[in-house]
Amino acid sequence: MNVRHIRIQGRSIAIGALLGASLVVAGQQVGRISWLPVAAPVELAQLVIRRDAKGDGHFGAPRSGNVAHRGVDIEAPLGSSVLAIRSGRVIMTGRHRGRGLYLELDHGRGLRSLYAHLQTIEVDTGDLVRQGQRIGTVGKTGNARHPLIVPHLHLEVSSAGALVDPSSLGLTLVDRLEESSDAIGGN
User: Fold this and answer.
1) Which end of the chain is more exposed for a tag (fewer CB within 10 A), N or C?
2) CB neighbour class for 48 (10 Å; exposed up to 12, middle 13-18, buried from 19)
3) CB 182 within 8 A of CB 173
4) What are phi and psi of 3, to 5 degrees?
5) For residue range 36-75, what is the model confidence (pLDDT) as tens digits?
6) Cα separation, 151 vs 157, whole angstroms
7) Dihedral over alpha carbons 9, 14, 16, 18 (to 10 degrees)
8) For the whole model, what pTM was predicted?
């Protein structure tokens, strides 16, 4: 190995040793950061946003009671695999009147994701899950039971307690009404 030395105020410092030490520190820091983009929450070629006779599945779309939609609704066949968008820990599973069968993951650094209207949940509270791991299946539970609502996964994402549009994390979502496959968000 060719190590170069520099002289600073009468002292010789090996550049190779200095660089090697800084890479070790950087390596330790990089180990805690996920450089992977978020994974698709369902195994489909395109993530199509639900739009049917009962509503619009876009983030922020108006809902009854002067409320905005808290996540995105992604059309998917009943029983399709639901996948973790990032690695994390299951912090909650349950049944809710509106959400139906749902689960929530904590990904660390304030990032959380919630998956609702599930048919099945295949993880337990406290479990660690990998990005892309199957955590449940698409269903029609909660307020998605209505016959005019197409089967879909409701995905909510929050950062430091504030709701964020999942497309801002790199998910490419397609609007069914567009004739082209232009992305609504993402890469």
Assistant:
1) N
2) buried
3) no
4) -105, 125
5) 689 999 999 999 999 998 889 999 999 888 889 999 999 9
6) 20
7) -60
8) 0.76
